[in-house]
Amino acid sequence: MDGFDNTTLRGRVYQHLRDGILANRIAPGTVLQEVPLAESLGVSRGPIREALGDLAAEGLVTITPRRGAVVASLSKRDFLEAYQVREALESLAVQLAVPVMTDEHFTHLEHAQERMMEADARADFLAFFDANIEFHDAWVVAAGNGKLLDMYRRLIGQMVPYRRPSALLRGGLDRSIAEHRDILEAARARDAQRASALMLRHIQVPQRRLMTLTEEEFARETEGAMETMAAGSMAAPARVS
Of 34, 139, 64, 156, which is closest to residue 96 (Cα–Cα)? Predict the structure, then answer.
């Protein structure tokens, strides 16, 4: 640890915990206790406390009196509400982005789309969703509205651990790729209204399935999907260096 100032160490701890949450190595509902974390990562409690505060600000953990920091989890209602907000943010982003998009923006989106297709072909689920997040984020970046981007990234940060259940609700990766292609074609034609409507429809697909599930069915499907996603990925905690 010698040579790292507190700010650097705080950032390393934050990134380590964030990566674990997003990859579902640290599951929703997990209690993150300062002392065990400090011991497993080989750091003092200060950087742990600060990193947990950063994760709470991002919406990935919830800090409550007595219980401490708990990895955020979404109920069926939470998930549905998150999707409703997401559809509003992304459809607006597309409307703002299409009139001002450059060749660079389109190239970025096409590269993300190609990576999704390659990941789908080799059944690499995590790589697909990394590229999928990049694809959707690129529209919000292209919109050029900083407030919109801040709101969107915070929301997506809360939803990322649920990307596997989201895929099951959607019904397959091929459909997602085809819908992305249609959105891109509308944007290239500078048809902002059509591109926005297609994005809205794309995001509403999982919502329609979600609304047919009971809370118990949602919890069961989510648990099974998260276990599948995490299978084989659990490892002993690495020391932060």
Answer: 139
Residue 229 — very low, low, confident or very high, per pLDDT cuts 50/70/90? Answer: low
CATH number of the domain residue 98 falls in? 1.20.120.530
- Domain's final residue, options 17, 45, 73: 73
3-state secondary structure of 5: coil
Angle between helices 163-170 and 173-188 (to 10 degrees): 80
pTM: 0.72
Element (H, E) at 69: strand 68-71
Task: Give residue-wise pLDDT tens across range 143-155.
Answer: 999 999 999 998 8
Same domain, 113 and 213: yes
Give the list of residues 6+ apart from residue 94 with CB closer than 8 angstroms, or none: 139, 143, 183, 187, 192, 195, 196, 199
Structural domain boundaries, residue 140: 76-228
β-partners of residue 32 are 69
* Pair (64, 81) in one structural domain: no
CA distances to 36, 40, 91, 239 from 12, in Å: 17, 14, 35, 10
Output the CA–CA distances (angstroms, integers) from residue 200 to 74, 78, 168, 193, 204, in the order listed: 22, 19, 19, 10, 6
Condensed to tens digits (0 to 9), the pLDDT of residues 30-81 reads 999 999 999 999 999 999 999 999 998 877 888 988 788 998 877 788 888 8
Q: What are phi and psi of 69, to 5 degrees?
A: -95, 130
Cα–Cα distance for residue pair 183/191, rounded to 1 Å? 10
